[in-house]
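INFO batch 0412 | record 1 of 1 | parsing
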Amino acid sequence: MQNFVYSVPTKIIFGKDQVDVLADQIKEYGRKVLLAYGGGSIKRNGIYDRVTEILKENNIEFYELAGIEPNPDIESVREGVRICRENNIDFILAVGGGSTIDCSKVIAAGYYYDGDPWDLVSRKSPITKTLPLGVILTMSATGSEMNSGAVISNRETKQKLHIMHPNLLPKFSILDPSYTFTLPKEQTAAGIADIMSHTFESYFTLNDGAYLQDRFAESILKTCIRYGKIAYDEADNYEAKANIMWAAPNAINGLLMCGKNAIWSVHGIAQELTAYYGLTHGVALAILTPVWMEYVLDDERVDKFVEYGVNVWGIDSNKDKYQIAKEAIEKTREFFTSIGLPKSLSEVGIGEENLEKMAQDAIDDKGGVIGNFKPLYYDDVLEILRKAL
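INFO prediction complete | emitting tokens
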């Protein structure tokens, strides 16, 4: 196991009606708030009314940034920075899922940067200081409520980039599983695929001796498998939604990466499908993950797939190694299908027209090679995309 430092100081406030503590949490940091959210769902399901009621009752002044898009665009960040500066905002409250949170994180950083916030995303300039940020989560997926990362798109340049900085960690996150009851089924499914993919990216490594971390990862995967179909079928099943909601941040808050050298693979390819086609991130991951698994399976890596098949799926360990591995991969694909996710790019209307461009962009973004479980180069990425058709 490698050396590591682990620190995630975000306060998690979990459970029913925990929004009642919102005002006290905000007052620790400020009294002029940017309320950031996406579409109209938080107004339809009553969360918006409850949040604004709390802010008004406690004389907390607030301004709104509405309409943050899925796969948030840098234009929304720019608008948020403008609102914050014009109104001397001292705290950002993100109400929504990962897209709203990620956008809010970069707004928080952009507030103290004199140039274009895209400079921060593209790492032309460093993040030095940020506004404090709080979260009310409405979708279990990205884990952004408990990590220091953000992903922002630039639709003009067809880029989707990831940044990380300790200052981007939320000060607190309120996680009420009942706030996910009104999510469309397809968003619930995409979120589950995202959680599992985050876990896979940390889990599939070679010979690192991080035994405990792999058992943590397997428990998250088994939780998604145990409760994912229930959460998909029964929108108001609190137990299922609660377990999925708690699995999400633990899949990507750094715990599974401790002591490991895990350079992610599938995410580096999937981001191009979002950048070029606007494909939902979790859908892209569900399509690509089994294809990637089949592509990287070989004599050096088969034992890891056996570990996965036996420990997560309960496959008989006495079977042939490759039989176990292939069965585990097929079970992964079947699980995604069981929650309504597509198996191929053609099912979502994507053909061969941009495969070469996407493969090149993916490689260029990662400095020529993607991942390290089995390093992927241009020809590898292109072949995986072709096999995903």
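INFO post-check: The longest strand covers residues 91-96.
INFO record closed
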